[in-house]
Amino acid sequence: MRFSGLRVLKEGLTGNRGWQAHWRDAMPKSDYDVVIIGGGGHGLSTAYYLAKEHGITNVAVLEKGYLGGGNVGRNTTIVRANYFLPGNSEFYSHSLKLWEGLEEDLNYNVMHSQRGQIVLFHSDGQRDAAARRGNAMRNQGDDAELLSVAELKRMVPYLDYEQARFPIYGGLLQRRAGTARHDAVAWGYARGASDRGVDLIQNCEVTGIDIENGRVRGVQTTRGAIRARKLAIVVAGRSSQVAAMAGMRLPIESHVLQAFVTEGLKPCIDHVISFGMGHFYISQSDKGGLVFGGDLDMYASYAARGNLPLAEHVMEAGMTLMPMIGNASVLRSWGGIMDMSPDGSPIIDHAGIDGLYLNCGWCYGGFKAVPGSGHAMAHLIATERPHPAATGFRLDRFRTGSGLMDEEGTGTQHNLH
Ligand SMILES: Cc1cc2nc3c(=O)[nH]c(=O)nc-3n(C[C@H](O)[C@H](O)[C@H](O)COP(=O)(O)OP(=O)(O)OC[C@H]3O[C@@H](n4cnc5c(N)ncnc54)[C@H](O)[C@@H]3O)c2cc1C
Fold this sequence. Notes:
The chain is 28% helix and 26% strand. By secondary structure, the chain is an alpha/beta fold. Helix 2 (41-54) packs parallel to helix 7, helix 2 (41-54) crosses helix 10 and helix 3 crosses helix 10. The longest helix has 16 residues, at 124-139.
């Protein structure tokens, strides 16, 4: 079933009786060429690109809950390509280009909105760092503009320029950055993969990984054993737990990240705004809610829920940046489990066991990576070679210390990235 304006018109005139389910509710088979554990953004996009780019369709995605019920449906939807270090910058640049063609590719409205992201700076030193980052982004072929305070005042007049705790010195703007409707991204990839023959199996938790003579043979699940020639672990915040089923100890810690949304308001915030000094960032959804979040809880946990101290911290940061936000009522808040790597950069690699592949360590920035990650992961599984845009995401950098990508310059402490 293809979506088009004509189709919407026809359905509207005929009682909306012709719409079909977006994907097949598949029953698990006993055997697959590739099994992907995890029906989040990265697992679904991996399945999609395996089928579309490599013709590998005897594939199952096993999801313990419902598709898109994990972090892909819990994030604050920011999409950008403003990384500084080689390794990261070419990957996120590649991912943003995929975003720009995604709706046509999937024939699905993911509401990708390139409304621009402004990262504020608050000192001369931060301005230098922002200028260097902007130059790195432009060298990579992406856009970046350094904004003065006068330019900022024209674009975002509602920030507190007079009495904020951290005075605003300017901002780094990426116009091609923006947002997308997060669960539509999961649904779009699910539909595209299912249409190409991939089995999407919900309520199917992987409980064990079968390995014989150093080679993956399949998985044990709550819906029975499934054999697989190749197995991909793509479970975000649960990466350490699932990898442990294969006897692996990953350099990943799981931390909670919270977000908040207000009641719907008339359009007032046109961009994504990031306020690093206060650990606060905000955008306005197409429904009108102000969507905002802050920092990690700094305490390793598998609880996908928030807590009051962090809520208070985020509200304070919002109020100091834009006091007008105090007039809005918060509608709800939630948490997700982040797979924090020691250098803040991800892993897309062989796991060191024949037929086993790893995709994890996306920290709190993996939504924007969904197209690039699936594309690179599918390439790795199909060809056994890393995708040219993802050669730096090796697992062994944490053992050897060579090739670490410490994007934030915060050292090797998981909760600081
Ligand atoms: C509050 C918040 C704000 C964020 N904001 C942004 C942002 O603005 N921009 C950005 O780029 N990123 C953001 N992120 C990060 C981003 O959401 C994640 O990095 C990304 O979604 C993780 O990849 P995923 O979509 O595949 O994860 P998930 O959707 O979590 O997918 C993993 C899936 O694996 C399943 N699973 C786990 N264990 C098993 C098992 N044993 N068997 C079967 N299935 C299993 C889970 O149920 C889950 O559905 C944010 C995250 C949060 C929580």
